[in-house]
Amino acid sequence: MVLFGDDNLKAKNRQNIGSGFTIEIIGSYKQKAILYRKGTQIKTVDLSDRVAKRLFVVETVESGAMQSRLALALNISRQTIHNYLETKKHYGLEGLIQGYTAAEGKSLRKQRAEHKKERCLGDKARQLEEIRRKARQERQEKQLELSFLFNGDGEAKTVEKDKQPFREEHEWEASRYAGIFAYLIPLITEWKWLKLVMGYFGEAYRIFMVFLLMAARNIRSIEQLKNVNAREAGIVLGMIRLPAKPKVWEWFYSAAHKQISRLLLDEQFRYQIKSGLVGIWLWFTDGHLLPYTGRGSVHFSYHTQRRMPVPGRTSMVTCDSSGRVVDFEIQEGKGDLRGHIAALARKWAKDVPQQPIMVFDREGYGAGFFWGLIDGKIPFVTWEKYADANKLAAIEDKRFASEFEFNSKKYAVFEGVKSFTYIPEESKKEEHRFTLRRIYIWNISSKRRASGLAWCEKKQMSTEDCARAILSRWGASENTFKHMKDRHPLHYHPGFKLVESDNQEIANPEIKEADSTIKRFKRSLSKLYKKLAKTEETLKKDGKPRQNSGRERLKNSIEEQEGALKSLKEEKAQLPERVDVSSLEDYKSFKRIDDEGKYLFDFVTCSLWNARKQMVDWLRPMFNQENELVDLFYVITNCHGWVKSTRQEVIVRLEPLQQPKRRLAQEQFCRKLTCLGARTPVGKWLVIEVGESPL
């Protein structure tokens, strides 16, 4: 009985080579290969034909097949496949075929003679090796160049030789923290991270190495470092051993007292944007609560899950469409999402070829804010805040013409227009009328409907693209904060300090008191109105109402309270909405939490998060189970292993994973990291591998 479709997929000689491809090898002497895509035969090739075989290998890999599996199926080395791909890249199909076919009416010998100067002669494997060597040398030269601005004077701080990372030479030593070495390699090669922190902070760079250990292993405070084996952690971080807590705090304060965290972050963010390490098509901005539980008087932020204000700050984080952190800023209290989005667009306008599309939630909804973005030529997409659920439900199903699937759910969309009128508070300014694209979204899977708004100026963004942008960072898709919080100490703030806040304004308490009095008068009037409606009018003998009757007394009481209510409303209108606490009695001044230490720690956290995103992308072609991919990455980075440091290189060997499929992916991943050619500032190569214990 067949449980999962075509029984041909269970053929003994058919092998899975990834991305839905399977290959079947027929024959023993003159072999043939049959390529299938999702069970359907798409190509047959004679493997005894050298040219056909090379073309088949290149086309199959370019279609998405995994090189390691194809090499195993065809009984060739993975290096051979890599050489085929590089040959085509550098020499074209002519170089891959390694020969000519004579044109009609021409001699093959004469044609070869004519093109002798153009042809690439010799062993192409050796030539490719030379190309790779030169490319590696260029990467090394670029890596050793400092392209950052340091300390405002344009000069990088120097670090003495005996305080350089990985200066110690030692034989193999065991370390339970060997897996975090994987983070260090892309940070050095892709982000130039070590050069950046050493250039800004000199010898104080070591606190960032400690933060790297904490963020990678989810160690939630410096105090918890007492549970870490000092020697085993130190040799992985490039130190002789991890120092005691007082020394770690000394490193921290020597870095924090420089007060240059914002310069460091801006330089890092600029480098990411310019080098293509983060996307610039869609930028998603949202606020993340940083709660405060101390005794100081600080401004209140808002706890979304508990739906109540709580003391704390708001970290305004901007991510690209893949979840990489583009920029972040910590603001007092609830923060200003609208102002942050506009400032973000202006901040990076010179560093991007065109303005990214800003995506934000309903907190940014407002005609004035929308007009400000349009006036500043800032494209945006957002939810519609005041959408009528009944009107959305009454829309005919057939109007939702375009269907697509997102996060394993079916959606249908169509587009309309919504008009806005913005009237500035200043009476002299004219009102502004404008229209926005209105995106109607129907979640067919959950039978719910919603709508969004978009303004994209000249950008070609379809209705479906707008809908996907709206759905990409909220609900089931909002993973940046949730996953970062689970894996890394997102809320930790080292070196906590309170300083006097520049913002000492609060909502006028007299307005709150007036509102309470107005509500009391309204409740009293409501009771009087009801009582008056039930009281019968008493008349004199001549038919006129009695002046001292109960009904007349009620009317007089209502008239008095209505007058008092009117007077209260007029007094309230004259009160200022916000006042400075220094002008009030029995009020403490507000304190601001100093963010310098938090910025330094979050710099490391977001660097690791972005590096993790990049490394998962590298790991994806090596492991075809998407739902286990991230877990596999964290398993690799949590592996125990062994460390050896020589004069030329630092070698970290990870213990192999038990499952063959995972071990193969682990080995390929480590080879990929090693091939990046990471080097320490003193020139040591960083090598990571998988193998048995050398001890």
Please sum up the structure shown.
Helix content is 39%, strand content 20%. The chain has 695 residues and is of the alpha+beta class. The strands form 5 sheets. Strands 6, 7, 8, 9, 10, 11, 12, 13, 14 and 15 form a 10-stranded mixed sheet that branches.
Count of DSSP strands: 22
Using the alpha-carbon principal axes, give the shape.
globular
Going by helix content, strand content and strand pairing, the class is alpha+beta
Give the distance, in angstroms, between the N- and C-terminal Cα atoms.
Answer: 51 Å
CATH architecture of the largest domain, by name, is Alpha-Beta Complex
Set down the secondary structure blueprint.
Elements: E1 14-18, E2 21-26, E3 32-37, E4 40-46, H1 50-62, H2 67-74, H3 78-97, H4 108-114, H5 124-144, E5 170-175, H6 181-189, H7 193-201, H8 206-216, H9 230-237, H10 245-256, H11 261-274, E6 282-291, E7 300-303, E8 308-319, E9 325-332, H12 337-347, E10 357-360, H13 367-375, E11 380-383, H14 389-393, E12 402-406, E13 409-422, E14 432-443, E15 448-455, H15 463-471, H16 480-487, E16 498-500, E17 505-507, H17 509-534, H18 550-574, E18 578-580, E19 591-593, H19 596-619, H20 629-637, E20 641-645, E21 649-654, H21 660-675, E22 685-690
Parallel strand pairs: 6-10, 10-11, 21-22
Antiparallel strand pairs: 1-2, 2-3, 3-4, 5-20, 6-8, 7-8, 8-9, 11-15, 12-13, 13-14, 14-15, 16-19, 17-18, 20-21
Helix pairs in contact: 1-3, 2-3, 8-19, 11-19, 17-18
